[in-house]
Amino acid sequence: MTHDDMYYPNKIWNPIENGEMPLSIFVFRDMDGDGNYTIKDRPFANVVVEVLGPAGPRAALRSNISGFVNCMASAVLKDRLITQPGAWHIRVVPPPGWAITTGNAQQVIVVVAMPGAPGGLVARVLPDPVGLAPIPSIRGRIARPDQAPSAKVLATGPDGNRSSLAVGSGGTFSVPVTQGAWLVDIAEVGARDRRHHVPVDGYPVVLPLLPPDPRRPAAGARRLIDFDDLIAHPAVAKIPNGYGGLNWRNWVVTHNRTYQGEGYINGTVSGDYVAYNGSGHPAVIDSENPFDFIGGYFTVAWSDAEGETLHVRAWRQDALVHEDTLSLSAMGPVFFSAHYQGITRMELRTAHYWQAVADALTFAVPGA
Questions:
Q1: Is 138 within 8 Å of 127 (Cβ atoms)?
Q2: Is the separation of the CB atoms in 62 and 71 below 8 Å?
Q3: b/e per residue, 157-188, with b = 16+ CB within 10 A?
Q4: Cα 282 from Cα 354, distance rounded (Å)
């Protein structure tokens, strides 16, 4: 060996390396539900994966913001999860309202000794990616919860079949649906009848209390706002007035990996940028000219705030014309099918001042 070669020595292979190796399971949001991981799909954060060893207790791990669950393996470091050869059983536990599309919720990692490998343990074959998709549903509530026993809610699917929905004591209803165009008709004592035209694209849909008025003309051409054209750098920025033809107060746009919040990743529907209410405080969208808010996707940013309530209110000049509530999850978005028409101001407020993530908002704006 020359003097220069001493700077670049070959590794001396030891029988057992004093290190560790991650044996990873990848979990993804199957955006088209085809059971195959493709370029369209996205990582799924905070999904539980159970791991059961040959003789050890069951462990429950969660996927990181890149969708990986890393089972650390080491034959030397005995505080790691996988410390011996054998069959290690894994099970992906879908969150409520989600289903596994890849048919491989349970898999086995066969671990063998491998002298010279980091940690001295490797898998014969790593697990295949596990895909999950939301179970589409339509959710809503009647205007008079005290009239729940007499209220009638009918849902008509794309195939023309009609079903009657049960209304809970709190005035809420929910029905699992397929993708496509649905009709929901609501009749209750003390409130006018409602008919909602509901397009379902795969995510749960939340209905507003008031349906659109078919006699009111659209405020302008529809405009999809997904925040991906607003910034590339820095990764966090205030949304300026005039963006999308509207004024924005206390709205922040960010890359979905800027923070470690699961909802920023899981709530991304389009591109890589999303918006949220700054510091969890109320956020406002307004305009001097009346505009329509068609709908958008909403998620809570952090799993610590699972079930946070989003209050949405809208005004037409000084008159409050809409008031709705949504229950949010960090596991994925709901689509709020608002159809607010001719409003001049809209406020979004979380009940406990946690950040709500918004993506793919659709407006009808004059001059768009």
A1: no
A2: no
A3: beeeeeeebebeeebebbbebeeeebebebeb
A4: 10
* Whole-angstrom Cα Rg for the chain: 25
- Bridge-based pairing of strands 356-365 and 273-277 is antiparallel
313: its two tokens: 């209110």
HSE-CB for 195 with a 13 A CA cutoff = 4
CB 298, CB 336: distance < 8 Å: yes
pLDDT digits over 10-25, tens only? 776 666 667 899 999 9
Q: Taking the chain, what is the end-to-end CA distance rounded to the nearest angstrom? A: 72
- Closest by CA position to 299, among listed 335, 333, 337: 333
pTM above 0.90, yes or no: yes
Q: Which residues pair with 60 in a beta bridge?
A: 50
Q: State the pLDDT at residue 147.
A: 87
Instruction: Give, in degrees to the nearest 5, the angle at Cα 248 between 364 and 219.
Output: 15
What is the pLDDT averaged over residues 120-149? 95
Q: What is the pLDDT of residue 169?
A: 85
Q: How far is CA 303 from CA 248, 262, 306, 332, 367, in A?
A: 26, 6, 5, 11, 39
Q: Measured between alpha carbons, how far is 43 from 30 in angstroms, rounded to an integer?
A: 9
Cross-strand pairs, 247 = 286
| Alpha carbon distance 110, 50 (integer Å) | 16
Q: What's the token pair of residue 168? A: 């809970």
How many of the other CB atoms lie within 10 Å of CB of 103? 10
Q: If DSSP codes are grouped into helix, strand and coil, which group holds residue 28?
A: strand
